[in-house]
Automatic annotation (TrEMBL):
Listed Pfam families: Glyco_hydro_28
InterPro entries on file: Glyco_hydro_28, PbH1, Pectin_lyas_fold, Pectin_lyase_fold/virulence
SUPFAM superfamilies: Pectin lyase-like
Molecular function GO terms recorded: polygalacturonase activity
Gene Ontology annotations of biological process type: carbohydrate metabolic process; cell wall organization
Keywords, alphabetical: Cell wall, Cell wall biogenesis/degradation, Glycosidase, Hydrolase, Secreted
Keyword Secreted applies: yes
Compartments it resides in: Secreted, Cell wall
Main localisation: secreted
Official protein name in the record: Polygalacturonase
Family: Belongs to the glycosyl hydrolase 28 family.
Amino acid sequence: DVRGLVIRNCTVRGTTNGLRIKTWPGSPPGRASNITFEDIIMADVSNPILIDQRYCPHGRCSDVDKPSRVQISDVTFRRIQGTSSSKVAVQLRCSEEQPCSGVRLDGINLRCGDQPCHAQFANVRGTPALEAQAPSLWVQEAHVLPSDAE
């Protein structure tokens, strides 16, 4: 399990992934909770904010059809600013079996060139809390579950 992790005061420059939590399909049960990313500057990052519970590099995973069994909860992305090199700046792709819960996006200010940034959510319990949201980020696609979904 991973609990109580804080990443703050960093600059991420010219990378594929910025702030990422990943789990493998078919992974054993576990938890990732109480994780905070704050005061981060992104400079030309392809995936600035990413939760990926279907992580499978190079398509070579034996359990690719099975959902991750890691429960991700209470994750905060606070005061994240800068530029994304892709249109989708925020991706929350959570497990079908263990949807993410308690995800907060607070003070996100990402620019995607001259286009608005997009956000994609899948299998997130309750609507991710969007506070002090920059007008340049809007939800393109969402599969959000009610807060009391089992």
